[in-house]
Amino acid sequence: MDFTTWMVAPEKIQLVDGKAIFMWDCTGDWRWGFDPDSPGRVFDAERHASWELHSEEMDQFLVHRTVWEVLHSASTRMRATGVSESAVAAITASAEEVQFGAWRWPVPGYRIFMQGDVLIQVVCDDDEDPEWDVDIAAPAPAALADILALPDVEWRR
Question: Which residues pair with 121 in a beta bridge?
Fold first, then answer.
């Protein structure tokens, strides 16, 4: 599954600055690699920046990367921007947060929640006057009925 990132085929993995690049973002601006001498450690970097040790080990990173890809590739998706903190609290009230490490990509501070078959991503879009961008994914529209009923949120599908 490669929607926001793409995995490098094992036979095409190459070393760059001592790291074996195994994944790129879809624009080719961000990359992930591992140290061949310690393959459980993940590193990330923008294309021409220095490698930094990722906050998660490879096994956890790959599980969380899969959650991310499912959220962005689901057949039923909707998005709202400029969502208030109180509306985010209502949207995520009965959901459980996926405990990601401190990822730097796509932006620091984003969060993902799960509520049954529904995935909810929240990203702060302004540090000075906090409003949130919210993306929701589900296997079918019926799973979103309760969230769609919340007032003061304008969803785009």
Answer: 112, 135
Q: pTM for the full model?
A: 0.72
CB 82 within 8 A of CB 131: yes
Assess contact for 157 and 77: CB atoms under 8 A. yes
- For the chain, first and last CA: distance in Å? 22
Strand partners, 98: 112
DSSP code of residue 143: G
Half-sphere exposure of 30 (CA within 13 A, CB side): 14
DSSP 19: E
Contact yes or no for 13/85 (Cβ under 8 A) = no
Sheet of 76-83, strands arranged across: 76-83, 132-138, 118-124, 111-115, 96-98
Residues of the chain with pLDDT under 70: 1-3, 101-108, 126-129
- Residue with the two structure tokens 């540090």: 127
Instruction: Name residue 83's beta-bridge partners.
Output: 132
Segment 88-127, tens digit of pLDDT: 999 999 999 887 766 666 666 778 899 988 999 998 876 6
Q: What is the dihedral of CA 35, 21, 13, 72, to 10 degrees?
A: 130
Mean residue pLDDT across the chain: 87
